[in-house]
From TrEMBL, chain A:
Localization (cell): Cell inner membrane
Transmembrane stretches, start-end: 17-38
An MF annotation (GO) of this entry: copper ion binding
GO cellular component, one term: plasma membrane
Role this protein plays: Exerts its effect at some terminal stage of cytochrome c oxidase synthesis, probably by being involved in the insertion of the copper B into subunit I.
Protein name: Cytochrome c oxidase assembly protein CtaG
Family: Belongs to the COX11/CtaG family.
Gene3D superfamilies: Ctag/Cox11
InterPro entries xrefs: CtaG/Cox11_dom_sf (IPR023471), Cyt_c_oxidase_assmbl_CtaG (IPR007533)
Membrane topology according to the record: Single-pass type II membrane protein
Domain of life: Bacteria
From TrEMBL, chain B:
A cellular component term, taken from the record's GO annotations: respiratory chain complex IV
Gene name per UniProt: ctaD
Domain (Cytochrome oxidase subunit I profile) ranges: 25-529
Enzyme class: translocase
Descriptive protein name: Cytochrome c oxidase subunit 1
Keywords annotated in UniProt: Cell membrane, Copper, Electron transport, Heme, Iron, Membrane, Metal-binding, Oxidoreductase, Respiratory chain, Translocase, Transmembrane, Transmembrane helix, Transport
Catalytic activity, as annotated: 4 Fe(II)-[cytochrome c] + O2 + 8 H(+)(in) = 4 Fe(III)-[cytochrome c] + 2 H2O + 4 H(+)(out)
The enzyme's E.C. designation: 7.1.1.9
Listed InterPro entries: Cyt_c_oxase-like_su1_dom, Cyt_c_oxase-like_su1_sf, Cyt_C_Oxase_1, Cyt_c_Oxase_su1_BS, Cyt_c_oxase_su1_dom, Cyt_c_oxidase_su1_bac
Sample GO molecular function, one term: cytochrome-c oxidase activity
Chain's role: Cytochrome c oxidase is the component of the respiratory chain that catalyzes the reduction of oxygen to water. Subunits 1-3 form the functional core of the enzyme complex. CO I is the catalytic subunit of the enzyme. Electrons originating in cytochrome c are transferred via the copper A center of subunit 2 and heme A of subunit 1 to the bimetallic center formed by heme A3 and copper B.
Family: Belongs to the heme-copper respiratory oxidase family.
Alphabetized Gene3D superfamilies for the sequence: Cytochrome c oxidase-like, subunit I domain (1.20.210.10)
Subcellular location: Cell membrane; Membrane
Length: 192, 529
C-alpha cells in the first residue's frame, strides 16, 4: 500500500471513518432503547415489565417467608403526601396480598400524579408480580383531598432461595402538565 | 519558533512563502506549525487548569470553608477536570502526533492539512466558551467532569447549554484530528515503511485514533441528550418521563473508559521510544507491544461499568465487569515487562527524557495497582467516590500521561527548536516534579481509605493533617511547572546548537533530518530498509 507511486485514495478512508462517526453517534442514542429492552427482559436495575400480571394461580410455598418492604417518596417539588399503610409485610411466595398506599393533595389545585416503581435487589423484580397497582395509571386527586390506592401482588414461588427481603419503592411524580386524556377526564368529574 | 521561519526561507524556495505575523498561524496548514500551536495551547490550558487546582487545594488546606463558596468550589473541580482532560492531555498528544507522525513515517505532511488547521483553530473557541460560562449568572458547570444526570439536567445552571456546545466543538476537533492521523498513517508511509516497522508512537496513536472515532460520537450523543432533557422537555434521564438516570452513567462510561485509554496509549508509544534510546538497546518485544496496545483498546469497551459498581447492578454484571477490568492488567503488564526488559543490561544514561520515562513506568504502575484494587467489586463499595479514586487517576494521568508528555517534550525539543535545553534546569524540574507529585497524590490514598469523600469543599477534622501535606505538595508541583515554562522559552530563544541526532541511542527517521527540523521535510520520501 505504501509503495503506491500515485496519490493514494484518501476519500475512501475518510468516507468510511465518517460513516463510523455517524454510526457511533446513532449507536449512542440506540443505547437508550437497547438499555430499556435489556432491563425489562432481565429485570436489571429493579425495572418492571410494567404490565399487569395474571391473577395468581400458583400454589403457596408455606415453607418460606419473604419480608417485603415498602418505601415511598415524592419527587423534588411535588407537594403531595404519599406513604404506605404498612411499612412491610411478611408473606409466603405465591400468597396474594393487598397493600394500600395513602396519598393526599394538600394544594388548592386538582392534580394528576404517577408513581414509578423500583425493586431492590434488581433480581427480585422478575418475581414480584402485580395483579393490580395504582402505578399502572396516572392518579388524579382533587384539591385538598386524600385517597387510598390499592396494590395487589404476589411473589412468584420460583423466587431464588437467597432472597429474604424485597424492597419495593415508589417515587411519586407530578404529571399534571403531561396528563393522559383518561386522567384528565377523571379529574374533570367531581371526585366521589 | 522564529528559527523555524528562518529555516523555511533557506530550504524551500520552491514552496509558497507562508505569510508572516498572525496570519501565518491562522492559515497555516503545515504540520509542524499546527503541532507547535497544539502544544502551546495545551500548555496554556495546563496552567489554567492548574490554577484551578491551586484554588481547590487552597480551600482544602484547612477544614471548614474559608476561601470560596461551595458552589464555586464545585465549578473549580468540574472545569479543572474538563480542561485537563480535553484541553491539556488530549491536545498535547495531538500536537505531538502532528509534529512527529509525518516525520516518523517519512511523509511530507499530514494527509489532510486544511482539516488540520480547522481541527486546531476551533479548540480555542471551545475553551473560551467553557471558561466564559464561569462568569455567567448562576455560574459555570458544577456537576463534575462526568456530568451525571440529574446534576447536569434538573439541577444545573443556565450555562449548561454553553458546556454542551463547547464539548461538541472539542469532540469535532478530536474526531477531525483522529481522521487525519488514520489517513496519514494508512496512505502516507514512505516506501518500505510497513505497518510492523512503524515506531510505537505511530502505532499507539493509530489505535488511539480508532478509539477516538468510536467513542467521541457517543460523548456527543450523551451531551446532546443532556441538552434536550434540560431545555427541550425530553426525558432520557428523567424517571418522571420514563427515562432513567442510571442509563446516563452507562452511556457516559461507554465513552469514558475508552477515553482514559485515549489519554494513556500515546504515552506508551512515547516511553517505548525513549527507553530504548537511553538504554542503547532495541525495544524488547516490539510486536507484543503492538498486540498488547490493540488488546487494551479492545478490552476497554468491555469494562465501563467498573465505574458503576455501587449503582445496584446484579451480581453477575458486577463479576463480569470486575474480571474484564482485571484482564486489562495483563496486556498492561506485558508492556511494563517489555520496558524493564529493554533496560536490562542496557547501557543506561539518565538524561531528563529518560528520567521522566522511568518515573512514568514506576508511577504509572502504582496507578495501575490502585486501579486493580478499585476493580475488586466488594472493596470498591468502600473506595468508590473517595480520595482513593482521586489518587488512582492522578497517578495514571499526572505521573502517567503528563510525565510522558514532559518526557516527549524534552526528547524532541532539540529537534523542534534546534537548541539543546538547559539540562540543569531540566533536572531541577524533574526532581521538583517527582517529589512534589508524590507528596501531592500519595497521601490521598490514605485519606480515601479512611473515608474522605471526593468533590467536597470541607471535611471532618481528622483529615486535616493529610490535606495540609497534600496541599503543600500541590503548590510545590504547580510552581515546579513554571520551571518548565521558563526552560521551554529559553530553549526556543537560544541555547547550544543541537545536532541532527542529539541522543546517541535514538532511532527513527526524525533524527535523519537536521535540527531544527526544516519547515518541509521528506518532500521526497526516504528509503526505509
Ligand atoms: C490497570 C489499569 C486500570 C484499572 C484496573 C482501573 C480501574 C479503575 C476503576 C475500577 C475505577 C473506578 C473507581 C470508582 O469510581 O470507584 C477507575 C477510575 C478512574 N480511572 Fe482507572 N483503571 C486503570 C487504568 C487507568 C488509566 C490508564 C487511566 C487514565 C490514564 C485511568 C483513569 C481513571 C479515571 C480518570 C478514573 C475516575 C473517573 C471519575 O470518576 O471521575 N485509569 N479506574
Ligand atoms: Cu474505567
Amino acid at each position: 500500500m505504501a509503495e503506491q507511486p500515485t496519490k493514494p485514495d484518501n476519500t475512501r478512508i475518510i468516507r468510511r471513518l465518517l460513516l463510523t462517526v455517524v454510526g457511533m453517534f446513532a449507536f449512542g442514542f440506540a443505547l437508550v432503547p437497547l438499555y430499556n429492552v435489556f432491563c425489562d427482559i432481565t429485570g436489571f436495575n429493579g425495572r418492571f415489565t410494567d404490565g399487569q400480571a395474571a391473577a395468581n394461580t400458583r400454589s403457596v410455598d408455606t415453607n418460606r417467608t419473604v419480608n417485603v418492604q415498602f418505601i415511598t417518596r415524592v419527587n423534588k417539588g411535588m407537594p403531595w403526601g404519599f406513604e404506605p399503610e404498612v411499612s412491610s409485610v411478611r408473606i409466603h411466595p405465591g400468597e396474594t396480598k393487598v397493600v394500600n398506599f395513602l396519598a393526599n393533595n394538600p394544594t388548592g389545585q386538582n392534580m394528576i400524579a404517577q408513581a414509578i416503581p423500583s425493586v431492590a435487589p434488581g433480581e427480585a423484580s422478575l418475581y414480584l408480580n402485580k395483579v393490580e397497582c395504582f402505578c399502572f395509571n396516572q392518579q388524579p386527586l382533587a384539591a385538598e383531598s386524600k385517597t387510598a390506592m390499592p396494590m395487589q401482588f404476589y411473589l412468584d414461588p420460583d423466587i431464588p432461595e437467597h432472597i429474604h427481603t424485597v424492597t419495593l419503592s415508589y417515587t411519586m411524580y407530578d404529571m399534571t402538565e403531561n396528563a393522559t386524556p383518561d386522567a384528565l377526564a377523571a379529574i374533570a368529574q367531581p371526585v366521589n | 519558533m522564529s528559527t523555524v521561519v528562518g529555516e523555511m526561507d533557506q530550504h524551500d524556495d520552491h514552496h509558497h512563502h507562508a505569510p508572516s505575523g498572525i496570519t501565518r498561524w491562522l492559515f497555516t496548514t503545515n504540520h509542524k506549525d499546527i503541532g507547535s500551536m497544539y502544544l502551546w495551547f495545551s500548555f496554556i490550558m495546563f496552567l489554567v487548569g492548574g490554577s484551578m487546582a491551586m484554588v481547590i487545594r487552597a480551600e482544602l488546606f484547612q477544614p471548614g470553608l474559608q476561601l470560596v463558596d461551595p458552589h464555586f468550589f464545585n465549578q473549580m473541580t468540574t472545569v479543572h477536570g474538563l480542561i485537563m482532560v480535553f484541553g491539556a492531555v488530549m491536545p498535547a498528544f495531538t500536537g505531538l502526533a502532528n509534529w512527529m507522525i509525518p516525520m516518523m513515517i517519512g511523509a511530507p505532511d499530514m494527509a489532510l492539512p486544511r482539516m488540520n488547521n480547522w481541527s486546531f483553530w476551533i479548540l480555542p473557541f471551545a475553551f473560551a466558551i467553557l471558561l466564559a460560562s464561569l462568569f455567567m449568572e448562576g455560574g459555570g458547570p458544577a456537576f463534575g467532569w462526568t456530568f451525571y444526570a440529574p446534576l447536569s439536567t434538573t439541577y444545573s445552571s443556565d450555562s449548561t447549554a454553553l458546556f454542551v456546545f463547547s464539548v461538541h466543538i472539542m469532540g469535532i476537533s478530536s474526531i477531525m484530528g483522529a481522521i487525519n492521523v488514520i489517513v496519514t498513517i494508512m496512505n502516507m508511509r514512505a516506501p518500505g515503511m510497513s505497518y510492523m516497522k512503524m515506531p510505537l508512537f505511530v502505532w499507539t496513536w493509530f489505535i488511539t485514533a480508532f478509539l477516538l472515532i468510536a467513542v467521541m460520537p457517543v460523548l456527543a450523543g450523551a451531551v446532546t441528550m443532556v441538552l434536550t432533557d434540560k431545555y427541550f422537555g425530553t426525558s432520557f434521564f428523567d424517571a418522571a418521563g420514563g427515562g432513567d438516570p442510571v442509563m446516563f452513567q452507562h452511556i457516559f462510561w461507554f465513552f469514558g473508559h475508552p477515553e482514559v485509554y485515549i489519554m494513556i496509549l500515546p504515552s506508551f508509544g512515547i516511553v517505548s521510544a525513549i527507553i530504548p534510546a537511553f538504554s542503547r538497546k532495541r525495544l524488547f518485544g516490539y510486536s507484543s507491544m503492538v498486540y498488547a496496545t490493540a488488546a487494551i483498546a479492545g478490552l476497554s469497551f468491555l469494562v465501563w461499568a467498573h465505574h458503576m459498581f455501587t449503582t445496584g447492578m446484579p451480581v453477575f454484571a458486577e463479576l463480569f465487569f470486575m474480571y474484564c477490568t482485571m484482564l486489562i492488567s495483563v496486556p498492561t503488564g506485558v508492556k511494563v515487562f517489555n520496558w524493564v526488559a529493554t533496560m536490562w543490561r542496557g547501557s543506561i544514561s539518565f538524561e531528563t527524557p529518560m528520567l521522566f520515562a522511568l518515573a512514568f513506568v514506576i508511577l504509572f504502575t502504582i496507578g495501575g495497582f490502585s486501579g486493580l484494587m478499585l476493580a475488586i467489586t466488594p472493596v470498591d463499595f468502600q473506595y468508590h467516590d473517595t480520595y482513593f479514586v482521586v489518587a488512582h487517576f492522578h497517578y495514571v494521568l499526572v505521573s502517567g500521561a503528563i510525565f510522558s508528555i514532559m518526557a516527549a517534550a524534552y526528547y524532541w525539543l532539540p529537534k523542534w527548536t534546534g537548541h539543546m535545553y538547559d539540562e540543569g534546569l531540566a533536572k531541577l524540574h524533574f526532581w521538583a516534579s517527582l517529589i512534589s507529585v508524590n507528596v501531592l497524590f500519595f497521601p490521598m490514598h490514605f485519606a480515601g481509605l479512611a473515608g474522605m469523600p471526593r468533590r467536597i469543599p470541607d471535611y471532618s477534622v481528622q483529615f486535616a493533617d493529610i490535606n495540609q501535606i497534600v496541599s503543600i505538595g500541590g503548590f510545590a508541583f504547580g510552581l515546579s511547572q513554571l520551571i518548565f515554562l521558563w526552560l521551554v522559552i529559553k530553549c526556543v530563544k537560544g541555547g547550544k546548537k543541537a545536532p541532527a541526532k542529539p541522543w546517541e541511542g535514538a532511532e527513527g527517521l526524525e533524527w535523519t533530518v537536521p535540527s531544527p527540523a526544516p519547515y518541509h521535510t521528506f518532500d521526497t520520501p526516504p528509503e526505509v530498509k
